[in-house]
């Protein structure tokens, strides 16, 4: 390397000066400016204009979701937008229900938009819609981007009062990454429509502690209080810190790009995050225990995306869905939706919407039928006799 610079000084002194200035600027931008310039300046650049606009609309109560001081966000109530319809409680239903019980069976659904069907499915085309009957009330409280920690909090503060016989909870394709996250854009920088704050649990030294958030912390955006909390408690804050160091100069951006690609490939050979997986299990157990104390049975749906359903070469190297399911089924009542889909013999387009995440109505009907037939839930749904007849 020394000979290279010596030769360069003799043959191309101007080029050497340019390279030295360039490298000096790269180092200055990466290591000096972030400690000098206000962090909020970088955060202003980190957030796309669309994300800022979405935040303002969210705090003003516009759109499909509204702020909630306990859960972070919940469905708007009494909303009717094309296929998307919610009742007075913010649930997707096919009939009008009261909070009080009336003698009929009652099933509540909770989880992400994979549970609620997404905005392209009508209420009748959701899992809950296919399960509903004259003898059974089904209320779908699935909410976009909800994680297992939010489901637990949602049940504690709201869903418990409906006194359901059965609570059906979706397990997302990646159910652990969101458990380490407070601010959605840090984990998903391209998510400009839901740049929201969520609560999370931290498990340290054998103690499970809830870190609550207030959506109003997003106003004004950014602010020092928000940045301090994210720096202390969001596991993805390091991504923003790398953005400060590597985003603004070409060499730094190239090095960071190569680092991301290497990290993405190396994950195929790495095991799961044991701490996050343990936290997931703790939250599931808490939900089961608290629901049982109120007379409610909980059943989980392990919900794959299209990549996990296909089982390509990445899944052969590391089938995180299969590994997690095998572990969870030993302790919890879990229905394997991937197995259900594969045994149906249907192709991907028949099961998944174009985004390869949300399910087609026919797939939702398959899941509803599986709930009727499963030993985990048929006695609550009064469908065990139907199962015996089919067998």
TrEMBL record:
Chain segments annotated as transmembrane: 20-43
Alphabetical UniProt keywords: Membrane, Transmembrane, Transmembrane helix
SUPFAM superfamilies from the UniProt entry: SGNH hydrolase (SSF52266)
InterPro entries assigned: SGNH_hydro_sf
Protein name: SGNH/GDSL hydrolase family protein
The species this protein was found in: Corallincola platygyrae
């Amino acid at each position: 390397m020394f000979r290279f610079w010596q030769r360069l000084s003799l043959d191309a002194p101007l080029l050497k000066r340019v390279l030295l200035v360039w490298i000096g600027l790269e180092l200055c931008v990466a290591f000096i400016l972030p400690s000098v310039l206000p962090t909020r300046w970088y955060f202003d650049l980190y957030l796309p204009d669309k994300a800022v606009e979405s935040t303002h609309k969210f705090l003003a109560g516009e759109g499909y979701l509204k702020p909630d001081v306990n859960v972070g966000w919940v469905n708007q109530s009494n909303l009717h937008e094309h296929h998307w319809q919610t009742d007075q409680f913010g649930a997707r239903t096919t009939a009008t229900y009261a909070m009080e019980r009336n003698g009929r069976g009652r099933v509540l659904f909770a989880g992400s938009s994979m549970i609620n069907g997404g905005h392209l499915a009508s209420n009748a085309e959701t899992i809950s819609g296919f399960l509903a009957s004259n003898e059974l009330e089904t209320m779908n409280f699935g909410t976009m981007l909800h994680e297992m920690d939010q489901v637990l909090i949602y049940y504690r503060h709201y869903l418990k009062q409906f006194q359901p016989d059965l609570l059906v909870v979706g397990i997302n394709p990646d159910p652990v990454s969101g458990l380490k996250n407070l601010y959605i854009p840090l984990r998903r920088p391209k998510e400009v429509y839901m740049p929201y704050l969520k609560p999370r649990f931290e498990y340290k030294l054998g103690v499970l502690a809830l870190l609550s958030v207030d959506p109003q912390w997003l106003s004004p955006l950014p602010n020092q209080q928000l940045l301090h909390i994210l720096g202390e408690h969001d596991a993805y804050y390091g991504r923003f810190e790398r953005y400060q160091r590597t985003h603004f100069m070409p060499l730094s951006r190239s090095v960071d790009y190569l680092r991301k690609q290497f990290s993405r490939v190396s994950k195929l050979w790495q095991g799961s995050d044991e701490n996050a997986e343990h936290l997931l299990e703790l939250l599931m157990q808490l939900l089961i225990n608290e629901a049982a104390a109120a007379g409610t049975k909980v059943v989980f749906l392990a919900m794959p995306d299209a990549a996990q359903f296909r089982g390509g070469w990445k899944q052969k190297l590391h089938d995180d869905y299969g590994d997690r399911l095998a572990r969870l089924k030993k302790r919890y009542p879990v229905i394997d939706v991937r197995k259900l889909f594969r045994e149906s013999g249907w192709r991907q387009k028949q099961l998944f919407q174009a985004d390869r995440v949300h399910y087609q109505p026919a797939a939702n009907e398959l899941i509803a039928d599986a709930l009727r037939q499963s030993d985990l839930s048929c006695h609550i749904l009064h469908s065990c006799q139907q199962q015996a007849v089919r067998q």
